[in-house]
Specification:
The chain is mainly α. The chain has one domain. The protein has 13 helices and no strands. α1 packs antiparallel against α9 and α1 runs antiparallel to α11. It is globular and about 60 Å long.
Length: 330
């Protein structure tokens, strides 16, 4: 097998690292605040359809100005931000259910995932002239980047660091502000204390529901942006089933990282590479001997094996998933 195939698989893994990592960061904020969010998949789905629409809408609206293609530059960026906004709005449903009405977090998350499928079809039919399962292909995307130095590696390995979306770089750098906000700011300390001991946090005069709302809304923003990136930058349009289980894979990466944004980077890349295997390495010597159906199952098998082997060694936030009965629940 040529190194070029491995390099392209690495390039694909960086793309799916971005999707899994951004979604995992959303889950990190939510669960650090004490709200379990298994609805990340649904939030991503809403991000895909709204992001694809936003990228086209803003590209066409901005158009050209003074000979500069503003639409081509800002359209995809604004589309991703629009997907983040819509993901945040949709996450409000989960926040209201779990924080205000104290609905079981798992039940609410399942509802989010189920409703998102139907809602995405409705939005697609509204946005794309009655097309409920996909939009027209060939949507706008950002100019691709080559990583200096790494894009000149010999043996075909340079392909791994060529033609990357700028969002891949942004996602990798997000570890810095996320880690800092959670560990070096008063806001982050209060958010984490809401997920560990909400009663003690309330005794200090901190409104636990307010911080939990912020955590859930941030999860919607990150997951929505991730879905928008997938539709606008990776696929190029909206298609039903664009994110098959990626939200759950991101949740698994979050658990394995022990809710740590730095460790989450590794597991997001690991699962991203697992996603790349059936896309590029399906003709590798050992893998090619497997049935095609099994090859397509590889990302999910890797996720299950990883969870089964390491889940007993992680410690979630102590109050995650538990209804807060203290004052100020509304």
């Amino acid at each position: 097998m040529p190194f070029t195939d491995i390099a392209v698989a690495l390039q694909i893994s960086f793309t799916y690292f971005t999707i899994i990592y951004l979604t995992g960061l959303g889950g990190l904020y939510s669960e650090r605040s004490g709200i379990v969010n298994i609805g990340l998949e649904g939030l991503m789905i809403i991000g895909t359809v709204t992001g694809a629409f936003g990228a086209r809408f803003f590209t066409d609206t901005l158009g050209f100005a003074d000979g500069i293609a503003l639409g081509l530059v800002w359209g995809p960026i604004l589309g991703i931000l629009f997907g983040a906004l819509c993901g945040m709005i949709f996450a409000t449903v989960h926040a209201v259910a779990t924080i205000t009405f104290r609905v079981d977090h798992i039940v609410s998350g399942v509802v989010i995932n189920l409703v998102a499928v139907g809602l995405a079809r409705f939005l697609s039919s509204t946005f794309f002239d009655g097309q409920s399962t996909q939009s027209d292909p060939g949507g706008p995307h950002l100019a691709r980047l080559d990583i200096p130095g790494l894009s000149s590696l010999p043996g075909g390995l340079d392909r791994a660091f060529e033609g990357l979306s700028p969002i891949v770089i942004v996602a990798a750098l997000m570890v810095i502000p996320v880690w800092y906000s959670l560990n070096r700011t008063r806001w982050g300390l209060r958010l984490r204390s809401c997920g560990e001991n909400p009663e003690a946090t309330r005794s200090l005069g901190v409104s636990v529901p307010v911080y939990r709302y912020q955590g859930v809304l941030l999860s919607g923003a990150f997951a929505g942006a991730s879905g928008a990136f997938l539709a606008a930058e990776v696929v190029g349009n909206w298609r039903e089933g664009t994110a098959p289980g990626l939200g759950f894979i991101a949740l698994a990466a979050l658990i394995l990282s022990n809710w740590n944004p730095i460790r989450l980077m590794f597991f997001a890349w690991l699962f991203g590479f697992a996603v790349a295997i059936p896309l590029r390495l399906n003709n590798a010597p050992i893998i090619s001997a497997l049935p095609p159906q099994f090859i397509r199952m590889i990302p999910y098998i890797v996720t299950i094996v990883a969870i089964a082997g390491f889940v007993g060694r992680v410690r979630p936030p102590a109050a995650a998933g538990k209804a807060y009965e203290g004052a100020g629940g509304t």
